[in-house]
Amino acid sequence: MTDSAPAAPAPPNSSSARPSDRFVAYVHRVCASTQARAALRRGLGLPVERCNYLHRYLVPWLRDHDDQHHGDVRRAYYAVASLIAARPRSARDTTPEQSASVSWYERPNLGASLGQAVAKGVMKANSAESALHLMARQSSDAIHPGLPALIRQLQSAGIAVDWAVLLEDLAWWNRRRDRIATRWLESYFRTAAGTTGTAPSDSVEENDR
User: Fold this and answer.
1) Dist. CA 148–CA 39, nearest whole Å
2) What pTM was estimated for this model as a whole?
3) Which of 26, 36, 98, 185 is most exposed by smallest CB count within 10 Å?
4) HSE-CB of 24 using CA atoms within 13 angstroms
């Protein structure tokens, strides 16, 4: 039996699921092939222009489901597909949770995932906070190269990442950076549950400078 897989067809439309959730489910199906998973993994941290091996899997999906002509949107899709494909084996063996029934703003964003890492002792509070404050000052082009190492650290420790939320946050980052960064920081401080000594209001003030 060979593991060669052609470009997988996009999943059928569902009026009850967000495009980001449908995309995450699609990538999980594509990653059932080790060949496809290896191809997607080659895009880690890279701009779309250097992701030639990913086009066969992602271009058809974007053509039918989202704005493929907006650079930030395309890069967010390519980045999240690569991150999913690069999951450590322990994370690949875990069935992704169905989050569509939860209110969008109640779902964990990257700040909440970092808060969980601090609460579990996986990361030091000052490291997590520094990472969040640095990202809050950066464009998406500066954020993308550092995501693979950060996400791998979280997943290797069993910290879940809501890929659909990350996808949408990255797609909108350059247009709504302050709003998204504030949401990440507020989620971080709520989730870290008192393991840090800084109030969420401090993060809002820093974003407004």
Assistant:
1) 15
2) 0.83
3) 98
4) 22
Q: What is the pLDDT along the chain (209 residues), one digit of tens a residue?
A: 334 444 444 444 455 688 999 999 999 999 999 999 999 999 999 999 999 999 999 999 998 886 666 889 999 999 999 999 999 886 766 555 555 567 887 899 999 999 999 999 999 999 999 999 999 999 999 999 999 999 999 999 999 999 999 999 999 999 999 999 999 999 999 999 754 444 443 433 333 33
- Closest of 81, 155, 77, 168 to residue 123, by C-alpha: 155
Return d(Cα 25, Cα 20) in angstroms, integer: 9
